[in-house]
Amino acid sequence: MPDIHALETVFDSFAPMQRDPNIRENRLDRMRLLLSHLGNPERSFRTYHIAGSKGKGSTSAYLAALLTGSGRKCGLYLSPHIYTIRERFTLSSQFFPDSLYLDTLSEFLDMVSSFHLPESLGARKPTTFEAYTAYGYMLFRNAGCTDAVIETGLGGRLDATNTIEPEAVLLTPIELEHTDVLGSTIREIAVEKSKIITEGTPVFSSAKDADARAVFIEEAMKMHSPIEFLDDAISGFSSRSSLDGERVRFKLLDNDFSLILRMSSLAMAENAALAILAASRLGLLTERGIQLLERTQLPGRFEKRWIDGTLVVIDGAHTARSMRYTLDTFMEIDEPASSTLIFSAVEGKDVSHMLSMLIPEFGRIIITKPDEWKKSDPEGIFHQARAIAPDKDIEYIPDRNKALGKALGWKRSILIAGSFYLASGMEALR
Fold first, then answer.
1. Three-state SS string across 301-335, please?
2. Which range marks the domain in which residue 181 is found?
3. What's residue 2's pLDDT?
């Protein structure tokens, strides 16, 4: 039997060589055919669908923890992964036995080896994300999961995950992201995300933008689905960051909540509150679930590491709003002026706004490349950074490992942010 590292490479063989618009426009038909060929494993458990621009991964993990605490055996499907591909498919943030990953992989590969999609739907083979999604459903079925929380990938309307019939839909805040694919306005992007709402399914949202909220309300009404917004459901909300975690207080349904979350930032506090709102309305909130929620830590979500006595914070913030939360949280636990920022971003991100808030705060900045396979312009980012602060100590080190090695040599606290892919190739973090 191959070892667990086989998971790291086998899915790459499904990736198309270039973006194919026919794949995206026919994504749901492609997935339905693939899932039917596999025996529709997604129908073997209850599902909960999460979409949004930021925070959907942590919200998904928090909801999975609450479901686990209520006695459910809950799978969790997330993207992207940071250190190991197994992060995408877990039992409420805990890895399955290696044997289950590998046995399911063999079963999946055997079943898709002779499977070909119609030419009219684009590439004949499933894409990497389609394969990830279908494999995840098979894994959860084989593990005997009763429930699974499913995070969307890109968008929602045409996302490969949008073939399930969820028990509930959760929608996190909407920001400008992937504008080349999802649209150039908040409203256009919100429309894409809103399309995971299914007929009669309860919807819970932490969206704050008026345009996004209006879109979600419109879609919920169209689908005859009740919708509830976090801001309308809770009161007395407060959040404070520390090295120990995020201290959160709020009142919901006449109950007072006082939490200490392992994942820090105001955004994490709001994501936890959204998951609690959904679980409470679904009758699945328990004291055990709250305990599991507090302990939840995902890689790359304000993840704190100590390397040779140096604090290293890894955060996947890649939008202006989420970067604001990340910076504010970092400022509560350390002093940016005496710290180092390692930054990069993939193509299509709002780099100028992120740099404008980060560059003035940090004493030293290193711009690097986020990933070998993701489109990016690190040299362009470097020149933008230099234009913002010509007199700042800003360096361009394309190699991520060399960038981290140099930063560690300065013996200053480090923030790594701008992309989930940035930390994934840093050997010192594995």
1. CCEEEEECCEEEEECCCCCHHHHHHHHHHHHHHCC
2. 6-295
3. 61
